[in-house]
Amino acid sequence: MDYGQLMKEAIEARKAAYIPYSGFGVGAALLDSKGQVHHGCNVENAAYSPGNCAERTAMFRAIADGHRPGTFQAIAVVADTEEPVAPCGVCRQVLLELCGPDMPVILGNLKGDIRQTTVRELLPYAFGPSHLEEQK
Questions:
Q1: Secondary structure (3-state) at 12
Q2: Which residues are part of the catalytic machinery?
Q3: CA distance 1 to 74
Q4: How far apart are CA 85 and CA 123, in angstroms?
Q5: Predicted TM-score (pTM) above 0.85
Q6: CA-CA-CA-CA torsion for 76, 110, 113, 105, nearest 10 degrees?
Q7: For residues 88 and 71, what is the distance between their CA atoms, to the nearest angstrom?
């Protein structure tokens, strides 16, 4: 699947966002190793911190569907922003853990602007599983 199609999937996923407080909808589409796409959208909560971002929703959904960490091919993220939207810090950390540092991350907006990066570029000097293995 090309990244333009993956971005279209993220735009479709954004339609399911539950955003009664901010009105800021985000969609994510995670491509697994079998070519299946897992949609994610942000889900808000009146207490704010119990909410979940689109990127984590897509990753957690894929894991719950039986896909293993490290088997994902790419993720696209989209929002109605001036510049292509990027994942928050928490999502960047989860991307590192579940997807790996070299996985492509496609950033977009509803105007059609797209920027391609990797998890490593989004989270340089990251703390990951290897740091914990060193302590054993």
A1: helix
A2: 55
A3: 10
A4: 15
A5: yes
A6: -10
A7: 22
